[in-house]
Amino acid sequence: METVLRWGLLSAGLISHDFATALRSLPRSEHQIAAVAARDLGRAQDFARRHEIPKSYGSYEELMKDPDVDVVYVAPQHPQHLGAVLQCLAAGKPVLCEKPLGVTTAEVREMVAAARARGLFLMEAIWTRFFPAAEELRALLSQGILGEVRLVRVDFGIELEQFLDRSTDWAQAGGGLLDLGIYCIQYISMVAGGRRPEKIHAVGLLHAKGVDDTVTTVLQYPGGLQASFSCSITTKLSNSFTVFGSKGEAEIPPFMHCPTELVVNGKSTQFPLPKVADTEKFNFSNSIGMVYEAQHVRQCLLQGLKESPVMPLAESELLADILEEARRQIGLRFLQDRA
Ligand SMILES: NC(=O)C1=CN([C@@H]2O[C@H](COP(=O)(O)OP(=O)(O)OC[C@H]3O[C@@H](n4cnc5c(N)ncnc54)[C@H](OP(=O)(O)O)[C@@H]3O)[C@@H](O)[C@H]2O)C=CC1
Ligand SMILES: O=C1OC[C@@H](O)[C@@H](O)[C@@H]1O
Protein backbone atom coordinates (compact mmCIF):
# COMPACT_ATOMS: atom_id res chain seq x y z
CA MET A 1 0.00 0.00 0.00
CA GLU A 2 1.29 3.50 -0.78
CA THR A 3 2.04 5.50 2.36
CA VAL A 4 -1.01 7.69 1.77
CA LEU A 5 -4.16 6.10 3.24
CA ARG A 6 -7.25 6.80 1.13
CA TRP A 7 -10.45 6.79 3.21
CA GLY A 8 -14.00 6.06 2.09
CA LEU A 9 -16.68 7.44 4.42
CA LEU A 10 -20.02 5.67 4.80
CA SER A 11 -22.69 8.15 5.86
CA ALA A 12 -23.01 11.89 5.54
CA GLY A 13 -24.04 12.21 9.16
CA LEU A 14 -22.88 14.10 12.19
CA ILE A 15 -19.83 12.09 13.26
CA SER A 16 -18.84 11.45 9.65
CA HIS A 17 -18.57 15.23 9.27
CA ASP A 18 -16.35 15.41 12.35
CA PHE A 19 -14.16 12.56 11.15
CA ALA A 20 -13.77 14.17 7.71
CA THR A 21 -12.83 17.47 9.33
CA ALA A 22 -10.26 15.74 11.52
CA LEU A 23 -8.81 13.79 8.59
CA ARG A 24 -8.41 17.01 6.57
CA SER A 25 -6.18 18.38 9.33
CA LEU A 26 -3.66 15.56 8.78
CA PRO A 27 -0.86 15.61 6.16
CA ARG A 28 -2.28 14.80 2.69
CA SER A 29 0.80 12.64 2.15
CA GLU A 30 -0.61 10.35 4.85
CA HIS A 31 -4.43 10.66 4.76
CA GLN A 32 -6.84 11.59 2.00
CA ILE A 33 -10.60 11.17 1.68
CA ALA A 34 -11.25 9.48 -1.65
CA ALA A 35 -15.03 9.18 -1.46
CA VAL A 36 -18.15 9.57 0.63
CA ALA A 37 -21.40 7.61 0.31
CA ALA A 38 -24.83 8.32 1.72
CA ARG A 39 -28.24 6.82 1.22
CA ASP A 40 -29.12 9.98 -0.67
CA LEU A 41 -26.80 11.08 -3.51
CA GLY A 42 -27.63 14.74 -3.01
CA ARG A 43 -26.53 14.64 0.62
CA ALA A 44 -23.37 12.78 -0.35
CA GLN A 45 -22.63 15.44 -2.99
CA ASP A 46 -23.20 18.28 -0.52
CA PHE A 47 -20.94 16.53 2.01
CA ALA A 48 -18.27 15.99 -0.68
CA ARG A 49 -18.35 19.65 -1.68
CA ARG A 50 -18.02 20.77 1.94
CA HIS A 51 -15.04 18.51 2.53
CA GLU A 52 -13.44 18.72 -0.94
CA ILE A 53 -13.89 14.98 -1.51
CA PRO A 54 -13.41 13.98 -5.18
CA LYS A 55 -16.10 11.29 -5.35
CA SER A 56 -19.60 10.89 -3.88
CA TYR A 57 -22.02 8.00 -4.14
CA GLY A 58 -25.73 7.52 -3.47
CA SER A 59 -25.18 4.02 -2.11
CA TYR A 60 -22.69 2.38 0.25
CA GLU A 61 -22.24 -0.49 -2.19
CA GLU A 62 -20.83 1.80 -4.90
CA LEU A 63 -18.19 3.15 -2.53
CA MET A 64 -17.13 -0.33 -1.47
CA LYS A 65 -16.35 -1.18 -5.10
CA ASP A 66 -14.15 1.89 -5.55
CA PRO A 67 -10.52 0.78 -6.10
CA ASP A 68 -9.34 4.20 -4.90
CA VAL A 69 -10.62 3.43 -1.38
CA ASP A 70 -8.05 1.72 0.88
CA VAL A 71 -10.10 1.67 4.11
CA VAL A 72 -13.72 2.40 4.98
CA TYR A 73 -14.97 4.42 7.95
CA VAL A 74 -18.44 3.08 8.81
CA ALA A 75 -20.52 5.78 10.50
CA PRO A 76 -24.27 5.23 10.13
CA GLN A 77 -26.33 4.69 13.28
CA HIS A 78 -25.82 1.58 15.42
CA PRO A 79 -28.19 -0.87 13.63
CA GLN A 80 -26.65 -0.17 10.24
CA HIS A 81 -23.11 -1.06 11.30
CA LEU A 82 -23.51 -4.83 10.79
CA GLY A 83 -24.68 -4.74 7.19
CA ALA A 84 -22.20 -2.07 6.16
CA VAL A 85 -19.23 -3.80 7.81
CA LEU A 86 -20.08 -7.20 6.34
CA GLN A 87 -20.49 -5.69 2.87
CA CYS A 88 -17.18 -3.82 3.15
CA LEU A 89 -15.38 -7.00 4.20
CA ALA A 90 -17.02 -8.95 1.38
CA ALA A 91 -15.75 -6.25 -1.00
CA GLY A 92 -12.23 -6.73 0.38
CA LYS A 93 -12.06 -3.43 2.28
CA PRO A 94 -10.56 -3.06 5.77
CA VAL A 95 -12.86 -1.24 8.18
CA LEU A 96 -12.89 1.26 11.02
CA CYS A 97 -16.45 1.04 12.39
CA GLU A 98 -18.00 3.50 14.78
CA LYS A 99 -18.91 2.41 18.28
CA PRO A 100 -20.72 0.34 19.27
CA LEU A 101 -19.47 -2.12 16.70
CA GLY A 102 -22.78 -3.95 16.87
CA VAL A 103 -26.10 -3.86 18.73
CA THR A 104 -25.71 -7.43 20.06
CA THR A 105 -22.90 -9.84 20.84
CA ALA A 106 -24.07 -11.98 17.93
CA GLU A 107 -23.66 -9.06 15.53
CA VAL A 108 -20.18 -8.28 16.84
CA ARG A 109 -19.08 -11.90 16.63
CA GLU A 110 -20.40 -12.16 13.07
CA MET A 111 -18.34 -9.14 12.02
CA VAL A 112 -15.23 -10.35 13.82
CA ALA A 113 -15.52 -13.80 12.26
CA ALA A 114 -15.99 -12.28 8.79
CA ALA A 115 -12.90 -10.07 9.18
CA ARG A 116 -10.80 -12.98 10.39
CA ALA A 117 -12.08 -15.29 7.64
CA ARG A 118 -11.11 -12.74 5.01
CA GLY A 119 -7.84 -11.71 6.69
CA LEU A 120 -8.94 -8.07 6.72
CA PHE A 121 -8.36 -5.35 9.32
CA LEU A 122 -11.35 -4.41 11.46
CA MET A 123 -11.38 -2.03 14.44
CA GLU A 124 -14.14 -0.62 16.62
CA ALA A 125 -13.68 3.17 16.81
CA ILE A 126 -13.14 3.41 20.57
CA TRP A 127 -11.29 6.65 19.86
CA THR A 128 -10.77 7.34 23.57
CA ARG A 129 -7.97 4.81 23.81
CA PHE A 130 -5.83 6.68 21.33
CA PHE A 131 -5.75 10.02 23.13
CA PRO A 132 -2.32 10.77 24.66
CA ALA A 133 -3.87 11.03 28.15
CA ALA A 134 -5.24 7.50 27.84
CA GLU A 135 -1.94 6.22 26.46
CA GLU A 136 -0.10 7.79 29.40
CA LEU A 137 -2.48 6.15 31.86
CA ARG A 138 -1.94 2.76 30.21
CA ALA A 139 1.82 3.25 30.51
CA LEU A 140 1.58 4.20 34.20
CA LEU A 141 -0.65 1.22 34.96
CA SER A 142 1.77 -1.13 33.21
CA GLN A 143 4.62 0.33 35.32
CA GLY A 144 2.63 -0.42 38.50
CA ILE A 145 2.61 3.25 39.56
CA LEU A 146 -0.74 2.75 41.34
CA GLY A 147 0.27 -0.55 42.88
CA GLU A 148 -2.46 -3.21 42.90
CA VAL A 149 -5.52 -1.73 41.21
CA ARG A 150 -8.48 -2.24 43.52
CA LEU A 151 -11.46 -0.19 42.24
CA VAL A 152 -12.62 1.77 39.20
CA ARG A 153 -15.39 4.34 39.05
CA VAL A 154 -16.63 5.96 35.84
CA ASP A 155 -19.80 7.59 34.63
CA PHE A 156 -21.08 9.21 31.48
CA GLY A 157 -24.32 11.16 31.47
CA ILE A 158 -25.43 13.80 28.98
CA GLU A 159 -28.98 15.08 28.46
CA LEU A 160 -28.91 13.66 24.93
CA GLU A 161 -32.67 13.19 24.85
CA GLN A 162 -32.99 16.94 24.49
CA PHE A 163 -31.06 17.23 21.22
CA LEU A 164 -30.11 13.87 19.73
CA ASP A 165 -33.16 12.08 18.27
CA ARG A 166 -31.36 8.77 17.90
CA SER A 167 -30.68 8.68 21.66
CA THR A 168 -34.35 7.87 22.35
CA ASP A 169 -35.09 5.99 19.11
CA TRP A 170 -35.70 2.35 20.10
CA ALA A 171 -35.72 1.24 16.43
CA GLN A 172 -32.20 2.65 16.16
CA ALA A 173 -31.02 0.93 19.35
CA GLY A 174 -30.91 4.19 21.26
CA GLY A 175 -30.35 4.70 24.97
CA GLY A 176 -27.31 5.25 27.15
CA LEU A 177 -25.68 1.82 27.42
CA LEU A 178 -24.68 1.31 23.77
CA ASP A 179 -23.94 4.98 23.13
CA LEU A 180 -22.35 6.15 26.40
CA GLY A 181 -21.95 3.11 28.64
CA ILE A 182 -19.52 1.58 26.16
CA TYR A 183 -17.03 4.35 26.98
CA CYS A 184 -17.25 3.48 30.68
CA ILE A 185 -16.87 -0.24 30.06
CA GLN A 186 -13.89 0.20 27.74
CA TYR A 187 -12.04 2.11 30.49
CA ILE A 188 -12.90 -0.56 33.05
CA SER A 189 -11.78 -3.27 30.63
CA MET A 190 -8.57 -1.37 29.86
CA VAL A 191 -7.73 -1.30 33.58
CA ALA A 192 -8.69 -4.98 33.89
CA GLY A 193 -6.34 -5.87 31.05
CA GLY A 194 -9.14 -7.10 28.83
CA ARG A 195 -10.06 -9.85 31.30
CA ARG A 196 -13.64 -11.08 31.57
CA PRO A 197 -15.56 -10.03 34.73
CA GLU A 198 -16.84 -12.88 36.93
CA LYS A 199 -19.83 -10.90 38.23
CA ILE A 200 -22.05 -8.26 36.60
CA HIS A 201 -25.00 -6.61 38.35
CA ALA A 202 -27.04 -3.91 36.62
CA VAL A 203 -29.99 -1.79 37.67
CA GLY A 204 -31.72 0.56 35.30
CA LEU A 205 -34.54 2.98 34.60
CA LEU A 206 -36.18 2.63 31.20
CA HIS A 207 -37.14 5.74 29.23
CA ALA A 208 -40.76 6.29 28.15
CA LYS A 209 -39.62 5.61 24.59
CA GLY A 210 -38.40 2.13 25.48
CA VAL A 211 -34.63 2.70 25.55
CA ASP A 212 -32.46 2.80 28.68
CA ASP A 213 -32.63 6.14 30.46
CA THR A 214 -30.16 5.69 33.34
CA VAL A 215 -28.23 2.53 34.23
CA THR A 216 -25.80 1.66 37.02
CA THR A 217 -23.69 -1.47 36.77
CA VAL A 218 -21.14 -3.04 39.08
CA LEU A 219 -18.56 -5.59 37.98
CA GLN A 220 -16.13 -7.84 39.83
CA TYR A 221 -13.06 -9.37 38.25
CA PRO A 222 -11.00 -12.40 39.24
CA GLY A 223 -8.46 -11.28 41.86
CA GLY A 224 -10.92 -8.84 43.42
CA LEU A 225 -10.88 -5.75 41.16
CA GLN A 226 -14.25 -4.01 41.46
CA ALA A 227 -15.72 -1.49 39.04
CA SER A 228 -18.89 0.54 38.78
CA PHE A 229 -20.29 2.76 36.10
CA SER A 230 -23.42 4.79 35.45
CA CYS A 231 -24.68 6.13 32.14
CA SER A 232 -27.62 8.37 31.38
CA ILE A 233 -29.25 10.13 28.44
CA THR A 234 -31.37 12.35 30.72
CA THR A 235 -29.01 13.36 33.52
CA LYS A 236 -25.65 15.10 33.39
CA LEU A 237 -23.21 13.09 35.46
CA SER A 238 -19.62 13.78 36.52
CA ASN A 239 -18.25 12.28 33.28
CA SER A 240 -14.98 11.43 34.99
CA PHE A 241 -13.05 8.20 35.42
CA THR A 242 -11.02 7.24 38.48
CA VAL A 243 -8.76 4.28 39.24
CA PHE A 244 -7.89 3.49 42.88
CA GLY A 245 -4.83 1.36 43.66
CA SER A 246 -2.82 0.26 46.69
CA LYS A 247 -0.22 2.99 46.01
CA GLY A 248 -2.37 5.83 44.72
CA GLU A 249 -5.10 6.96 42.33
CA ALA A 250 -5.44 8.33 38.85
CA GLU A 251 -8.31 10.36 37.45
CA ILE A 252 -9.33 11.46 33.98
CA PRO A 253 -11.63 14.47 34.46
CA PRO A 254 -14.54 15.31 32.14
CA PHE A 255 -14.94 14.72 29.33
CA MET A 256 -13.28 11.43 30.03
CA HIS A 257 -14.31 9.99 26.67
CA CYS A 258 -12.13 12.51 24.81
CA PRO A 259 -9.51 13.30 27.48
CA THR A 260 -7.05 16.20 27.61
CA GLU A 261 -5.95 15.83 31.25
CA LEU A 262 -4.66 13.09 33.54
CA VAL A 263 -4.39 13.57 37.32
CA VAL A 264 -2.15 11.12 39.17
CA ASN A 265 -2.05 11.39 42.97
CA GLY A 266 -3.26 14.98 42.68
CA LYS A 267 -0.71 16.00 40.03
CA SER A 268 -2.32 17.19 36.80
CA THR A 269 -0.80 16.76 33.36
CA GLN A 270 -2.42 18.44 30.35
CA PHE A 271 -2.56 16.88 26.90
CA PRO A 272 -3.79 19.65 24.63
CA LEU A 273 -5.67 18.76 21.47
CA PRO A 274 -4.10 19.32 18.04
CA LYS A 275 -4.59 22.83 16.73
CA VAL A 276 -7.35 23.27 14.18
CA ALA A 277 -8.57 26.38 12.34
CA ASP A 278 -11.30 28.30 14.18
CA THR A 279 -13.35 28.13 10.99
CA GLU A 280 -13.66 24.36 11.39
CA LYS A 281 -16.88 23.47 13.21
CA PHE A 282 -17.56 20.09 14.85
CA ASN A 283 -20.76 18.42 15.98
CA PHE A 284 -19.29 16.74 19.05
CA SER A 285 -16.77 17.58 21.78
CA ASN A 286 -13.05 17.35 21.01
CA SER A 287 -13.67 15.62 17.68
CA ILE A 288 -10.30 16.81 16.38
CA GLY A 289 -9.07 14.02 18.64
CA MET A 290 -10.31 11.54 16.03
CA VAL A 291 -6.96 12.13 14.33
CA TYR A 292 -5.39 9.82 16.90
CA GLU A 293 -7.43 6.77 15.92
CA ALA A 294 -7.02 7.58 12.22
CA GLN A 295 -3.24 7.69 12.62
CA HIS A 296 -3.36 4.43 14.58
CA VAL A 297 -5.35 2.72 11.82
CA ARG A 298 -2.82 3.87 9.23
CA GLN A 299 0.05 2.48 11.31
CA CYS A 300 -1.77 -0.84 11.73
CA LEU A 301 -2.38 -1.13 7.99
CA LEU A 302 1.20 -0.17 7.14
CA GLN A 303 2.36 -2.98 9.45
CA GLY A 304 -0.05 -5.44 7.86
CA LEU A 305 -1.99 -5.92 11.10
CA LYS A 306 -5.48 -7.42 10.94
CA GLU A 307 -6.61 -5.86 14.20
CA SER A 308 -5.48 -3.19 16.62
CA PRO A 309 -3.29 -4.20 19.56
CA VAL A 310 -4.83 -1.31 21.51
CA MET A 311 -8.48 -2.09 20.71
CA PRO A 312 -8.40 -5.83 19.89
CA LEU A 313 -11.39 -7.62 18.38
CA ALA A 314 -11.64 -10.00 21.33
CA GLU A 315 -12.13 -6.93 23.54
CA SER A 316 -14.85 -5.59 21.24
CA GLU A 317 -16.57 -8.92 21.74
CA LEU A 318 -16.12 -8.62 25.52
CA LEU A 319 -17.54 -5.07 25.58
CA ALA A 320 -20.54 -6.35 23.63
CA ASP A 321 -20.99 -9.22 26.09
CA ILE A 322 -21.00 -6.86 29.07
CA LEU A 323 -23.42 -4.46 27.37
CA GLU A 324 -25.75 -7.30 26.48
CA GLU A 325 -25.72 -8.77 30.00
CA ALA A 326 -26.52 -5.35 31.45
CA ARG A 327 -29.38 -4.96 28.95
CA ARG A 328 -30.68 -8.42 29.84
CA GLN A 329 -30.67 -7.63 33.55
CA ILE A 330 -32.60 -4.37 33.13
CA GLY A 331 -35.08 -5.93 30.70
CA LEU A 332 -34.05 -3.97 27.60
CA ARG A 333 -34.43 -5.79 24.29
CA PHE A 334 -33.89 -4.46 20.77
CA LEU A 335 -35.10 -5.63 17.39
CA GLN A 336 -31.71 -7.28 16.82
CA ASP A 337 -31.98 -9.53 19.90
CA ARG A 338 -32.75 -13.07 18.87
CA ALA A 339 -35.77 -14.78 20.44
N1 LIG B 1 -16.80 8.59 18.34
C1 LIG B 1 -17.64 9.54 18.68
O1 LIG B 1 -17.30 10.47 19.39
C2 LIG B 1 -19.02 9.48 18.18
C3 LIG B 1 -19.52 8.33 17.63
N2 LIG B 1 -20.77 8.28 17.14
C4 LIG B 1 -21.30 7.03 16.58
O2 LIG B 1 -21.46 7.22 15.20
C5 LIG B 1 -22.67 6.63 14.75
C6 LIG B 1 -23.48 7.71 14.04
O3 LIG B 1 -23.84 8.70 14.96
P1 LIG B 1 -24.30 10.15 14.43
O4 LIG B 1 -23.34 10.60 13.39
O5 LIG B 1 -24.56 11.01 15.60
O6 LIG B 1 -25.69 9.77 13.72
P2 LIG B 1 -26.62 10.58 12.70
O7 LIG B 1 -27.92 10.79 13.35
O8 LIG B 1 -25.86 11.70 12.12
O9 LIG B 1 -26.86 9.44 11.58
C7 LIG B 1 -25.72 8.97 10.87
C8 LIG B 1 -26.21 8.33 9.58
O10 LIG B 1 -26.94 7.17 9.86
C9 LIG B 1 -27.83 6.93 8.77
N3 LIG B 1 -29.17 6.76 9.30
C10 LIG B 1 -29.77 7.57 10.17
N4 LIG B 1 -31.00 7.10 10.45
C11 LIG B 1 -31.16 5.98 9.75
C12 LIG B 1 -32.21 5.02 9.61
N5 LIG B 1 -33.35 5.16 10.29
N6 LIG B 1 -32.04 3.98 8.78
C13 LIG B 1 -30.88 3.86 8.11
N7 LIG B 1 -29.83 4.73 8.21
C14 LIG B 1 -30.00 5.76 9.01
C15 LIG B 1 -27.74 8.12 7.85
O11 LIG B 1 -26.79 7.77 6.85
P3 LIG B 1 -26.75 8.44 5.40
O12 LIG B 1 -25.96 9.70 5.59
O13 LIG B 1 -26.06 7.42 4.53
O14 LIG B 1 -28.17 8.67 5.01
C16 LIG B 1 -27.18 9.18 8.77
O15 LIG B 1 -26.51 10.23 8.12
C17 LIG B 1 -23.35 6.04 15.96
O16 LIG B 1 -23.19 4.62 15.93
C18 LIG B 1 -22.63 6.65 17.15
O17 LIG B 1 -22.46 5.73 18.21
C19 LIG B 1 -21.58 9.40 17.13
C20 LIG B 1 -21.13 10.57 17.68
C21 LIG B 1 -19.84 10.68 18.29
O1 LIG C 1 -19.88 8.69 21.04
C1 LIG C 1 -20.46 9.72 21.32
O2 LIG C 1 -19.91 10.71 22.11
C2 LIG C 1 -20.68 11.18 23.21
C3 LIG C 1 -22.13 11.43 22.85
O3 LIG C 1 -22.25 12.57 22.05
C4 LIG C 1 -22.72 10.25 22.08
O4 LIG C 1 -24.04 10.53 21.66
C5 LIG C 1 -21.87 9.95 20.88
O5 LIG C 1 -22.38 8.81 20.19
From TrEMBL:
Superkingdom in the source lineage: Eukaryota
InterPro entries, alphabetized: Gfo/Idh/MocA-like_OxRdtase_N (IPR000683), Gfo/Idh/MocA_domain (IPR050984), GFO_IDH_MocA-like_dom (IPR055170), NAD(P)-bd_dom_sf (IPR036291)
Pfam families linked to this entry: GFO_IDH_MocA, GFO_IDH_MocA_C3
Catalytic activity: (1R,2R)-1,2-dihydrobenzene-1,2-diol + NADP(+) = catechol + NADPH + H(+); D-xylose + NADP(+) = D-xylono-1,5-lactone + NADPH + H(+)
Keywords of this entry: NADP, Oxidoreductase
Annotated EC: 1.1.1.179, 1.3.1.20
Gene3D superfamilies: Dihydrodipicolinate Reductase, domain 2 (3.30.360.10), NAD(P)-binding Rossmann-like Domain (3.40.50.720)
One Gene Ontology term from the biological process aspect of the record: D-xylose catabolic process
GO MF term set: D-xylose 1-dehydrogenase (NADP+) activity; nucleotide binding; trans-1,2-dihydrobenzene-1,2-diol dehydrogenase activity
GFO/IDH/MocA-like oxidoreductase domain boundaries: 136-250
Domain Gfo/Idh/MocA-like oxidoreductase N-terminal: 6-123
UniProt similarity note: Belongs to the Gfo/Idh/MocA family.
PANTHER family per record: OXIDOREDUCTASES, TRANS-1,2-DIHYDROBENZENE-1,2-DIOL DEHYDROGENASE
Subunit structure: Homodimer.
Name of the protein this chain belongs to: Trans-1,2-dihydrobenzene-1,2-diol dehydrogenase
